[in-house]
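REQUEST ID: PR-0412
SUBMITTED BY: lab tech R.K.
PRIORITY: routine
TASK: structure prediction, single protein chain
INPUT:
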Amino acid sequence: DNGLGVQGTHPAIAQNYQQGDSCEGRILAENAGQFNPGPRPDLLYAIVNGGYYGHPNPSRDECVYIGGNPTSGNDWPVPQIDGTLAFLDSPKTYGVGLEPDVNWRLPEYSLGNSRSANGIIAYES
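STATUS: complete
OUTPUT:
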């Protein structure tokens, strides 16, 4: 996943959003800045059929960016490529208590900011 550098946004969803609610509507709008989660690290995922990897797609009712914001503490531990453990920051644009999409998958690794994982493929026979 090529993480969000500086600009970007996610759909506005209600604080009482429940899995399966719609988030249809314009994503880029005049007030898009209020939905900008800020710079994000580049992440490496193991792709599985039916998985959701955190980029909202309103046409599939995948509305919650990354892992939501389930608690006021550190959520979602992810190993970094240097062997240390980091936590994915929950988007501050969400109130505490927003759970991730049911099909959301944690990344395998955080590569850090501005390090692209484009083109990595694992073949199995």
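NOTES: The mean pLDDT is 78.
REVIEWED BY: pending
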